[in-house]
Amino acid sequence: MSDSSSALRIVWIYPDLLSTYGDKGNVLVLRRRAELRGIPVEEVHVHSSDPVPAEGDIYLLGGGEDRPQILAAERLRADGGLKRAAERGACVFAVCAGYQIVGESYGDDDDNPLPGVGILDIRSGRGQVRGVGEIVADVEPSLGVGRITGFENHQGRTAIGPSATPLSHVVKGVGNDDGQTEGAVQGQILGTYLHGPALPRNPGLADLLLRWRVGQIPPLEPSWGERLHEERLTAVL
Ligand code: GLN
Fold this sequence. Notes:
Elements: E1 8-13, H1 24-35, E2 41-46, E3 58-61, H2 66-79, H3 81-87, E4 91-95, H4 97-102, E5 105-107, E6 113-115, E7 122-139, E8 147-160, E9 165-172, E10 181-186, E11 189-192, H5 198-201, H6 203-214, H7 224-236
Parallel strand pairs: 1-2, 1-3, 3-4, 4-11
Antiparallel strand pairs: 5-6, 7-8, 7-9, 9-10, 10-11
Helix pairs in contact: 1-6
Bound molecules: glutamine.
Keywords: Cell shape, Cell wall biogenesis/degradation, Glutamine amidotransferase, Hydrolase, Ligase, Peptidoglycan synthesis, Transferase
Subunit structure: Forms a heterodimer with MurT.
Binding site for substrate: 130
């Protein structure tokens, strides 16, 4: 947010291409948790034929199947708005196909490398087997999020380069290519394989994105989000 009077601008990138597992839930929960703290929100939905505004606060990218993923990456690269936004310090939350797209490169269906948007130092190729199922991971302690849960479904395997760090350490599931870590963080760019969608299942992750943009935020009374989080942890472990 540029000043205290302006709204938090949440930009949902390409709902027509990248929205496999109810990724709209991430937009709704982020908005709700901001508004419950009295933070006004402006929500912008960017269709894949539209330009990506460079002046957003938090950009959300969801998951996608292989072909829509390729199309989305090509359009985002040609457009340049997301890269410009990241260069001026905007926050990006990218899930699965979105995670791979914001990296340096990712593999197509035959594992030929294709260029990503290049705002997160990761490279993705194709794995031998699909990573499918429930995943539980412990987020890097300095981020103050704790344990997260989600559903993963990806053929891609992601290697983290020296400029990024793992988001979390896997307790159960697949995650990145090393079989030990899940997701990646670089400044305020956060990528993860967690569907679910991730933010409704992990309110703490939504609050991390809000803290990055607006600083300290008061805690909220635990509600259905926290209950869902607990329920999934109990069910999966
Ligand atoms: N197409 C990518 C893969 O299979 C991403 C899948 C997804 O977003 N669920 O790795």
